[in-house]
Design brief:
The chain is of the alpha+beta class. It contains 2 helices and 4 strands; from the N terminus they run E-E-E-E-H-H. 21% of the residues are buried.
């Protein structure tokens, strides 16, 4: 009997873990003609939930504000995924979750953000593609420089 040591990567489940939408200045905000400033923040987290099974959550926060710091809308989506990752070196698990899994989750999170904003009465927000590899490398460099201090 030979043991299968081929790397395994499968998507077990994709889901919206959390969704929040706020339009604190409605209905007056709908009378505004100025174009709001859009701010997007991304955060990826991952943890092992069973042997070879990992949950990865990509949180996308989109805030639209007008001058004088008036909020047009604030939407936050936590797009989750359960992934099976087996027969992979331990050092490769984090990059797989933070880059590979995040790339899989992003289009779903992007759709949820656009749909929520549209359903709240605004023009859809279409998030630009994200280079999760560059983000991961930047976070690693920042963590390395903070521990060196």
């Amino acid at each position: 009997m030979t043991e299968n040591t081929q790397p395994v990567f499968t998507i077990e489940k994709l889901y919206v873990k959390d969704l929040s939408l706020e339009v604190p200045n409605a209905p007056q905000i709908f009378l505004e003609r100025e174009t709001p400033q859009i701010n997007v923040q991304l955060n990826t987290s991952g943890n092992q939930i069973d042997e070879g099974i990992y949950e990865v959550v990509l949180t996308v926060t989109v805030a639209a504000k007008l001058p004088e710091d008036r909020t047009v809308f604030l939407v936050e989506v936590a797009q989750g995924g359960i992934f099976q990752i087996r027969n992979v070196p331990a050092d490769d698990i984090e990059p797989i979750m933070m880059i590979g899994c995040a790339n899989i989750l992003f289009p779903y999170a992007r759709e949820v953000v656009s749909d929520a904003v549209t359903r709240s009465g605004f023009q859809p927000v279409l998030l630009a593609p994200v280079n999760f590899e560059a983000l991961f490398q930047a976070q690693k460099q920042q963590a390395g420089s903070e521990t060196a201090q």
